[in-house]
Amino acid sequence: MREIINLQVGQCGNQIGSCFWETISAEHGIDARGSYHGTSDYQRERLDVYYNEIDKEKYVPRAILVDLEPGTMSAIKASPSASLFKPDNFVFGTSGAGNNWAKGHYTEGAELIDQILEVIRREMESCECPQGFQLCHSLGGGTGSGLGTLLLSKIKEEFPSRLISTYSVLPSPKVTDTVVEPYNSILSLHHLIENADSVFCIDNGALFDICKRTLKLPNPDFVHLNGLISQVMSGVTCSLRFPGQLNSDLRKLSVNLIPFTRLHFFSVAGAPIVSKDSEKYVNSNIMELASQMFDPNNMMTACDTRKGKYLTAAAVFRGRNISTQDVDNQMHLLQSKNSTNFVEWIPNNIKTSVCDVAPSGLPVSGTFIANTTSIKGLFQRYATQFNQMYRRKAFVHWYLSEGMEEIEFTEADSNLRDLLMEYQQYEDATIDEAVGVAGGDDGEEDDDMGKEGEAGEGKRAPSFLFFLWG
């Protein structure tokens, strides 16, 4: 068993978390009461990764639901899937965080953290071989950002050998209008850089554009956005939930996607994404799926992948009777067409992945996970907005009144700017720089190698990878 504990924090985190559980429960043949009605051994073989079996044919999600106000918890308890969750795993306060990161991190959140950790310890004790944690939260509000990052640091301190993967929803003025979002985002990213092992970045602005442009929805709401998020979360976790050869746990996934420790922020995309009116006119074959997955307009992060370079990537194709030869050919063709979007010091090594279990309601689907330097454009946007306000110390007093020190603002901003420089460094690196010894004598080789050693990781990077299981 390689169990994962799911943490969903704040209103956004609980909404996308609940949608995620509904999606994967349907894929595994589990109804709203937790009873198993599956028809395939594949559905049941690795149920223990995300579920506890409490009785014969009865399963409970290994989920901990957290918020600083009771409203979100009441909504979940009143939903059709209320009986799916364990009542003892609902942990909530009464006052809320008021869109204030410091309130969620230092005052209201700090009062609740011991209670949350006690529930986590109880879940960990019931696991035979836990592999890590999965956190769903947003960065724009107060609870998901403040309490969410506090929880990350506490878990890292208490369970240092366990991996932490986060699904972090980044804010956008197209969807919300919280004025202090830049502060909350920068402070949260500072902790995600240091304490998270992998971060799947999901941008509300990009989701909003997909709903308007591709799905043709005139007035998209959070139900539509959460549906897109749960679709890609299902695809990302497919390799963890169903039997396979590679990427069968969080550590393997991280090792294959993260070339350098701090560069663990991923962009994700899902396919097919089509409007209801166009469904009957779309041929969901491998070529169409691969084309959509590579399309920058389908990225759920508001960054143009054409303005950066891929470091690593993984693609998941799901469905019966998918030809691995077709997948190989299509991915090779797409990489050839987009060769300028790959760092030049990557060997031409592409692996494809196929999973026989299709998502509910679709014959085939695809999910794309990219570690691309273009994500720095998204972070640059937040850094610019942050500095525009912080230069005049606007709204800072609300954070300081909760016990936060002003130096934390400058430390967070500095850490993010260092990350931006690292992304730029690896984007600009050439193949000669990566090798570091081409055409030099022994003294020059030693000199180059010494410089690489001082940089920590040097310039080595893995191949652009597509992983295979099934």
For the structure shown, list the relevant keywords.
alpha/beta; disordered C terminus; 17 helices; 470 residues; 44% helix; two-stranded antiparallel sheet; ten-stranded mixed β-sheet
Could you estimate the helical fraction of the residues in percent? Answer: 40-55%
For the terminal residues, how far apart are their CA atoms? Answer: 18 Å
Q: Based on the structure, what is the oligomeric state of the protein chains?
A: single chain
* Coarse structural class: alpha/beta
Mean pLDDT: 84
**Quick one: overall form?**
globular
Estimate the strand proportion. Answer: 15-25%
What gyration radius follows from the Cα positions, in whole Å?
22 Å
| SS summary, helix count | 17
**What are the secondary-structure elements, in order, as H or E?**
EHHEEEHEHEHEHEHHHHEHEHEEHHHHH
Low-confidence stretches: 435-470
Strand order of the largest sheet: 5-4-1-6-7-8-9-12-10-11
- How many β-strand stretches? 12
Which helices and strands occur, and which strands form pairs?
Elements: E1 4-9, H1 10-28, H2 41-45, E2 51-55, E3 58-61, E4 63-67, H3 70-77, E5 90-92, H4 101-125, E6 132-138, H5 143-158, E7 163-170, H6 181-195, E8 198-203, H7 204-214, H8 222-236, H9 238-241, H10 250-257, E9 265-271, H11 286-294, E10 310-319, H12 324-337, E11 354-355, E12 364-372, H13 376-390, H14 396-400, H15 407-428, H16 431-435, H17 442-454
Parallel strand pairs: 1-4, 1-6, 4-5, 6-7, 7-8, 8-9, 10-11
Antiparallel strand pairs: 2-3, 9-12, 10-12
